[in-house]
Amino acid sequence: MLQLDRKYILVIEVAKDIREIIKRSLGHMANWQVFSVNTIAEGLTLIQTQQPNVILLEADLLDHSDCHIWQQLQTTASEQSIPLIFMAARIRSMDRLRFEELGAVSAIAKPFEPQELVEAIAQLLK
Question: What is the CATH number of the domain that holds 87?
């Protein structure tokens, strides 16, 4: 297990199995605490009580959520300086540009290797 400072990661992902893989990977490999929800609205509520160090967000949720809720999450993350990482099944250069315009600091293609996910987040937390 990597010996990293205790960090709090918010995962907003519809698929329960992916949430579990992320939670186990980040918890076991990096000793980070993971909060996972399946909607942007739930993520926004959680941010009010727990300030995560990083938010991992399933990119497909952008197309299926209320624009107002997404804008609230985006504003809150920006105001609290919480890095936002998008997860998507496929990431092309135009996707990366879109994600950057939406405030993402990084994007991770799914499926991913758990170690790669830990390393990507650890880079942001330095």
Answer: 3.40.50.2300
